[in-house]
């Protein structure tokens, strides 16, 4: 029995290591649950590697109480585990060098404006500079003495409906602070306002006011109700600008996955009456957008040549049917259909080994964006990076979030220059 368990443990480690580098669940044939398992394991083992090694070491210690390591099989298994760990550590080393590759991509796309931009937060240059404390204890980022967090503030109330948001802001009382509007992911059917807390706590510490917005989920509602909920939040934020000391003329939206999709639509549909019923005259323009592993493709999952049944099933809940039965909804939900000459700058980020969203999906939206020659916009493809890389303050997040911060400061500085503000 011990031998069988040892073989199973060893083969599982090999399988899970391979899944980090290339998701083993196939989008065109796997169920939603299978894809979710593949993504979750690849994300946790790839990004929480120190904890994975500690867990494996503990399991090896338990096996040492048997006679398995007196056999050739036992030592061969240990060698296999060590090889898996070494391969995963090499991946971390590649991630550690990711900021240099990101800089190169942005210099090529943005030119001198990126070279001249500055940041307060530098990515770790080596393993010694990694913030191990926050990596191993993610909750510590919420204890930053420079900021305060206000949970579950009601921004819209109607009958039994109460929509809430969380506010991350600096404790100092300076006015006219820039705003980051965070929209969480969860396939439009779930999710938490606490996603991307690492980015929001960090930006609050740098003087920004961050609002993480909650919204209703499908199948209880269908699109565009999700977007309308968030536009209600934007209206509320602007109406309370003096209370929170914010600059209502500079707001940037961001979000991951489904939140990235909604963040993009916030930037692409300003002042569109259909998406702000009852408050059509309120200004819903924003000044920039950073979709992180966002969803941009709403047609090919239903195609026989490029099927993605798990995504198609979710979209049916979100849109109340298929593209054949609800063509108007699928036209409205597609961000590429709303790109115009008034589109604000975009920074798109997409992981190369994302189990849920293929790189090609983000690239297709980027090509559509380029047709309007949007200035100060860029696309970042991130090798060996999985979906949800920014949820915890892992090494991956510590290497990528400084780029997001630098881009936010770039947009704010450019806005101030245009407004003649020093």
Word description of this protein:
This protein has two domains: 2-96, no CATH class; 99-296 and 334-419, 3-Layer(aba) Sandwich (Rossmann fold). 45% of the residues lie in helices and 14% in strands. It contains 15 helices and eight strands. A six-stranded mixed sheet has the order 1-2-4-3-5-6, sandwiched between helices. A two-stranded parallel ribbon has the order 7-8. The chain is globular, with a radius of gyration of 23 Å. The N and C termini lie far apart (72 Å). The mean pLDDT is 93.
**CATH architecture call of the largest domain:** 3-Layer(aba) Sandwich
Number of strands: 8
Q: What is the name of the CATH class of the largest domain?
A: Alpha Beta
Radius of gyration based on Cα positions = 23 Å
Oligomer: single chain
| CATH-defined fold name of the largest domain | Rossmann fold
Reading the helices and strands in chain order gives: HHHHHHHEEEHEHHEHEHHEHEH
Q: How many domains is the backbone divided into?
A: 2
**In percent, how much strand structure appears in the residues?**
5-15%
